[in-house]
Amino acid sequence: MREGEPEERVAAAIAAAAGDEVVALRHVGRACASGLGVDGVSLSVIGDLGTAEPTQATDDVAERIVELEIVHGGGPALLALEQDDPVLLPRLVADRRWPLLVPALAEVGAAALFAFPLAAGGVTVGVLEVYQRWPRALTEAEVAVGVLFAESALELLVSGEDDVLAGPVADRWTFVNQAVAVVAAQIGGALEDGYARLRGHAFVTGRRLPDLAAQVLAGELVFGV
Questions:
Q1: pLDDT score for 49
Q2: To 10 degrees, what angle do helices 101-108 and 60-72 make?
Q3: Could you tell me which of 163, 153, 171 has the C-alpha nearest to residue 33?
Q4: What is the rounded CA–CA span in Å between residue 97 and residue 100?
Q5: Considering the chain, what percentage of its residues have pLDDT values greater than 90?
Q6: Which residue has the higher pLDDT, 162 or 191?
Q7: Domain 6-164 has CATH 3.30.450.40
Q8: Could you give the CA distance from residue 93 to residue 162 in angstroms, rounded to a whole number?
Q9: Which residues pair with 114 in a beta bridge?
Q10: Among candidate residues 145, 198, 202, 152, the one with its CA nearest the CA of residue 28
Q11: SS3 143
Q12: In the prediction, which pLDDT does 122 show?
């Protein structure tokens, strides 16, 4: 990504990642990982429950990272959503804001995290999060490129194309949403209550939310009042 203006390089990288396919969020993630030379990228959008919902990830680690942030209720991705500014953590273990989350993130392979909100006009609809397996700071130019990839993802989201979000990660989180509704019914509460119970169970047991959702939908895991 050395020729042309940054915007042109980002657009060309995304187009190259898509090839003959219609450009979708997964192509933005792949192009971002390659363009920044990082280990992985995830893309999340604000779901019906008002919090981040993973839709794309370049690998399992990227998906696991944002999932842990959701379970713990904090982290750079969620903070970027709140403050509408990039959150840059070149050395994750040095951060003291999330004492329980940081060791969990390190365990799955994150040493550096960079979150870029998908925002325009004061409205944030998602976040692009980059991870690195070893500590590393992004240069100013790389941060600017990360912002451009986030802007490209936002443009795709507002385009209204149905298949922009399509993929296995989005499918897994569709089942999570279905399980939340089941849990809410089981405990006689609102969807937010059901989601809190499911996340709490994931936190206590160390299980993944999609795995718990599968058990709930199969009737193998039942929550009482």
A1: 84
A2: 170
A3: 153
A4: 9
A5: 85
A6: 191
A7: yes
A8: 39
A9: 88, 130
A10: 152
A11: helix
A12: 81
Contact (CB, 8 A) for 187 and 45: no
Query: Which are the contacts of 25, defined by CB distance < 8 A and separation ≥ 6?
Result: 43, 55, 56, 153, 156, 157, 164, 165, 167
Q: With CA atoms as reference, report the closest residue to 115 among 92, 71, 81, 139.
A: 81
Q: pLDDT tens for residues 80-93? A: 999 989 999 999 99
**What top-level class would CATH report for the domain 168-217?**
mainly alpha
46-56 confidence digits (pLDDT tens): 988 888 899 99
Q: Give, to the nearest 10 degrees, the angle between helix 140-159 and helix 25-36.
A: 170
Distance CA 188, CA 202 (A): 20
Q: What is the mean pLDDT of residues 28-33?
A: 96
DSSP character for 51? S
Tokens of 101: 């989350």
Give the pLDDT band of residue 161 (cuts 50, 70, 90).
low
75: left (phi over 0), alpha (psi -120 to 50) or beta: left
Instruction: Sketch the domain layout of the chain as residue ranges.
Output: 6-164, 168-217
Q: Which tokens is 81 given? A: 């959503």
